[in-house]
Amino acid sequence: MAGYRTAIIVGATDNNIENNEYKKASYSNYGDCVDIYAPGEVTYPNIFNGSTKDYTSIHGTSCATPIVAGVAASIMSEHPEIKFNNELMKKKLIEMSIKDVIVDLKKRGSKDTPNRFINNGKRSIYSPDDGNIYCGILSDNKTLSCFDGCCNKEGKCVNFQNDPWNQCLIENGCQSEFGYCTSKDKSVNECEKELKEYEECLIDISSDMNKEDLMNKCLIIKSDRCDTFYKHQFTNQSVCSIAKYNYDNNNNNNNNNNSYNTSFDFIKNYNQEKYKKYINLCDENLDNYKEECLNNISHIEQYRK
């Protein structure tokens, strides 16, 4: 069925998240025929022995597919004015999907596998009594904290991945007792320290470089250390994602630190597209280098014969 192009083809990911990225499940399909990925592990009540408390977990693309079907159903219910068919729903799901959060999909699958993760477009979390969950002094017990973001002045947890920069500022009412908060000056100072710590990762790569320089820079940018640094930048888990909005206002205070100004300008103008371009260039170069090595080995073996 995965080759039936008019169907909506679903792949599965593991449920564990690493650095805000998913991995393709080992049992999942892959290739250009896959339209979208969804979590492949689900928990359900185990009622076969008459229990009302037991639960168990299963995994498979048969679990991922109903999740996508559920999202499709919710889209249809919210837009009764639209008469959806397979192609229109597929287009809508792809449009709403979260792009490029499945790590190493090309290595674990194939180079032509689309990197799309299911998304229903919602950001609000609701409690069982159908009320919006608040944090800080506006929460039910006035003690609820945010563990993966900040508690803004409206009492809502704002996830780092949703680019909450101005809502996490103390100047804007961020509730520091109930989650992460910073100030304009503090964010710039902390970003300066971070950029100094990861200074070796702030490099440009070009196809015009000689092979040795290109290889050396590729080894640096693809290292675990630099990989983590850039992923934190692109998922707003770095204080620099907040500081870049406040840098212009504090630039005069840093005029004497040319090294910092240069580093900050680099990261401020750096984006995920440029990073991917560098990584793809490195992968191509490494593949060519590998092929060259194999050819040399083959020539040596023939010479020995």
TrEMBL record:
GO terms for cellular component: extracellular space. Keywords: Hydrolase, Protease, Serine protease. GO terms for molecular function: serine-type endopeptidase activity. Residues 2-97 form the Peptidase S8/S53 domain. Coiled coil: none annotated. It comes from the Eukaryota. Gene3D superfamilies: Peptidase S8/S53 domain. InterPro entries: Peptidase_S8/S53_dom, Peptidase_S8/S53_dom_sf, Peptidase_S8_Ser-AS, Peptidase_S8_subtilisin-like. PROSITE patterns: SUBTILASE (PS51892), SUBTILASE_SER (PS00138). SUPFAM superfamilies: Subtilisin-like (SSF52743). The keyword rRNA-binding does not apply. It holds the Pfam family Peptidase_S8. GO terms for biological process: proteolysis. The keyword Glycosyltransferase does not apply. Belongs to the peptidase S8 family. This is Subtilisin-like protein.
